[in-house]
Amino acid sequence: MEYRVLTDESIREYIKNIDSVNEYLGNEEIEIEEIGDGNLNFVFIIKSGDKSVILKQAVPYLRCVGEEWPLSRERMSYEIRALKTFKDIANNNIPNIFHSDENMSLIIMQNLNKHIIMRKGLIQATKYPNFAEHISTFLANSLFKTSSLYLSSSEKRELMDKFNSNRELCKMTEDFVFTFPYMKHDSNNINLLMQKEYQELIHDIGFKVNILKLKNLFMNKSEALLHGDLHTGSIMLNENETYVIDPEFAFFGPFGFDIGAIIANLIQSYLSHFERTKDEIFQEWVLETIREVLLDFEENFLELWDETKESALITEGFANKEVLYEYKQIFMQNIFQESLGFAGAKMARRIFGIAGVEDILGIKDLEARARVEGKSLKIAKRLVKEYEQIENIDELLDIIRGV
Amino acid sequence: MEYRVLTDESIREYIKNIDSVNEYLGNEEIEIEEIGDGNLNFVFIIKSGDKSVILKQAVPYLRCVGEEWPLSRERMSYEIRALKTFKDIANNNIPNIFHSDENMSLIIMQNLNKHIIMRKGLIQATKYPNFAEHISTFLANSLFKTSSLYLSSSEKRELMDKFNSNRELCKMTEDFVFTFPYMKHDSNNINLLMQKEYQELIHDIGFKVNILKLKNLFMNKSEALLHGDLHTGSIMLNENETYVIDPEFAFFGPFGFDIGAIIANLIQSYLSHFERTKDEIFQEWVLETIREVLLDFEENFLELWDETKESALITEGFANKEVLYEYKQIFMQNIFQESLGFAGAKMARRIFGIAGVEDILGIKDLEARARVEGKSLKIAKRLVKEYEQIENIDELLDIIRGV
Question: Is the pTM of this model over 0.90?
Fold first, then answer.
């Protein structure tokens, strides 16, 4: 079908032929509502009785800016491919997909109406006791099973082919996470009370050398299929379920990048509550969650590895127990350390870059906000500059508590 | 044109319509001769008067084994793409290309009839005083200008797209360079006098852990377009000219892999002459050449980098001199060390793996050959196990002289 932007009316026409959607919705009258909460896309709820689905369509520009900011609608192709790939290997953490159409840049999927965007929940100091287990399972599955630790050499190259051309969105990360926030750039957005710290940062040699290292890893280490933008705004959850959404930034990159995004967002949530709620119990829960995410990830990842006898990297019969034990130690330590480096970059960019996080930006008192930003920057700098030396989770937690 | 295997007769038909070839060859009668020295492909010389060109066509099996060993003829597509890419950026080191045809899996190019396969020259203890300068220029250009240090983010991804699917040949390297030679495997070919050393190697934990590290780099670090099989049999040269040929293994991999292949082959040539000619002056020239290749590569690479103000990795205005200086030091040291690791793997696999090198295998006295193999293995083990600790070229040369 040739691409066209759908409206209420044309959606009715469009879904008439889609059995999976009609079967699910049943025969009652259909109501369609546009819920324009996205920066990039059009999102509709299609309701019929008590059933509903989401239809998401990409338009060839950045929706929140308008047609003058063109952005290829092919981003939806990568989102579709990533959702389908992740659905196959991490079923419980991906919404059900009823229909997808790359030509039309659209997908129809489960309406997560019993779930909340995690960032909003965290701002309200809501604890999610199963989050660590869920997200670490998702991370272990999505990363391990798209890597050369699980796939054959040729399967991995085939999968890479589907994502390698996600140029525009990779470039956005390269610019907005690894470059612009640490130099003079029009896109930056700096709290007046943080000008001094910003000036210090853009002249911090050790920080910038390591940002280049991390950017180089991001661009050149093609280890696994990443979500690519796994902040707490890309997670919808409740006490019992955790869903990962919006993987339009998906591409093959370093294991640590998605893990780092989660850690960064949790640290910034923790810091924001020094001003927001001063709820120490919630803050302790956040720190405990960071520990659990990292520990459970490692445990789940190693469990998957133990079950896998043959892969692109490890041919059966090549390595005995001692070799595998030693190699896995080095491998996991490397993922851990790079995760922390990426967490640092993700935190730093939220302070001075174009896209802040509501956890911090929502603090309207500029002095209070600057206190959170200052703490966040201190941690970010240490993570970026020292990630190769941080040995374990306790050291990480000491750094966080230290501010 | 639909694929078919060409013969003398059909080549005459085929080239009738190719102006570039006809213009070059002129109007004299054409003679065609098959020179079957390849393992993989059919190679013809097309002569007319004193002019001649080479026509190389891939068949869908491994030529040296026969039709029962299928190997996709698409390998020629990667060879064509790599030759064209390298020709654009390292013109002097790539033969002239008159015509190429991916559908027919064939290429017509300059006949290098004033040149010798470098391995044959080295076996005869011939010195090539300009080789180090030529190959280091080729390496610097081909690696730098296909990397994110030179290309834009999106140019690099576009170029990667052309090579990412070179699955079969990447898999061959993964198996035959990084896996089979270090385990029990039918494809291995072991000098009876080296059985003890082979047994030791396949139980050497430190060696195998680091082989896994290097294999992982090979598979997951997509830094630059590599030749992928740059041994001295893929180089044709004379005193004044050096040409790189046969890049059918081309893919995006780590900077150090091609450099390591050159270093490995030079070290093995050096070692072979303890038994072949005992020509110490030639051996000293080989060691001096290793030093020059590494030094000149670094100098050329850094010169290209200094000339480049904007790339995928480094945005103009991001990094001041101090940042760039420090980052470049770390970067070049990393390339150097990984080159030595890959050199070690390349050497080790030549001793026990399926494809030995004529420099060593051509020594018919098994005891003499074992002495060379033993020395080669000692160096290979140190390079693989210690590559991350070797600081400079003098340390490398000490290791080589030490055996």
Answer: yes
